[in-house]
Write a structure and sequence with these properties.
The complex is a heterodimer. By secondary structure, chain A is mainly beta. Chain A is 0% helix and 49% strand. In chain A, the strands form two sheets. In chain A, strands 2, 4, 5, 6, 9, 10 and 11 form a seven-stranded mixed sheet that branches. In chain A, a hairpin with a 3-residue loop joins strand 4 and strand 5. Classes of the chains: A mainly beta, B mainly beta.
Chain lengths: 117, 113
């Protein structure tokens, strides 16, 4: 089954304690992305990756890091979490658009609800 | 600066009637608009899309309308079913950045039996 998986699904942590949220996809997609969803703000992009070892900032990258060492995995790292990073996080993947081969639909994971106290 | 706005945070409709969800945007340069549907405790799933060169796209009970002069997008669901109850997000791909999606704030649709 084609899917995007995230772990953990729920996480409660304390300010300053480093954490990693994992994301994996089995569709051989080049493009992967992280979003956060907050009330009244919709989904906002944190970081994205066009392929292995290629990552770039989205709209709200402050306080986050990512890495893309393998095509299927795209972990989100919070080196020193703060309460304003309490949110619902989604990982997504898609086939890369290039030239005439356009691809618009992104496939989302089930989400990770993070609470930082 | 919110480029895509869904001004109705919630909408309640009777089963069998039409649901109309609206989306207004400010950026005139885009390739595609998409609608995503999200159930609680699940990730968003793709529902329907429309390209910038069309004004209507239909898929079963779902129809998306694009009014470029008004910078307005709408999703019609008819007839509405209780299983349609979810949060609906509109999103668009900016022109020249087809790998990016910019999302609206979402509308919670409740279809009453």
């Amino acid at each position: 089954e084609a899917q995007v998986t995230q772990n953990p699904r729920y996480l409660i942590t304390v300010t300053g304690k480093k954490l990693t949220v994992t994301c994996s996809q089995n569709m051989n997609h080049e493009y992967m992305s992280w979003y956060r969803q907050d009330p009244g703000l919709g989904l906002r992009q944190i970081y994205y990756s066009m392929n292995v070892e290629v990552t770039d900032k989205g709209d709200v990258p402050e306080g986050y890091k990512v890495s893309r060492k393998e095509k299927r995995n795209f972990p989100l790292i919070l080196e020193s979490p703060s309460p304003n990073q309490t949110s619902l996080y989604f990982c997504a993947s898609k086939r890369l658009s290039s030239g005439r081969a356009k691809s618009y639909e992104q496939y989302f994971g089930p989400g990770t609800r993070l609470t930082v106290t | 600066d919110q480029q895509v706005k869904q001004n109705s945070p919630s909408l309640s409709v009777q089963e069998g009637r039409i649901s109309i969800l609206n989306c207004d945007y400010t950026n005139s340069m885009f390739d595609y608009f998409l609608w995503y549907k999200k159930y609680p405790a699940e990730g968003p799933t793709f529902l329907i899309s429309i390209s910038s060169i069309k004004d209507k796209n239909e898929d079963g009970r779902f129809t998306v309308f694009l009014n470029k002069s008004a910078k307005h997008l709408s999703l019609h669901i008819v007839p509405s079913q209780p299983g349609d109850s979810a949060v609906y997000f509109c999103a668009f791909t900016p022109g020249g950045a087809t790998n990016k999606l910019i999302f609206g704030t979402g509308t919670l649709l409740a279809v009453q039996p």
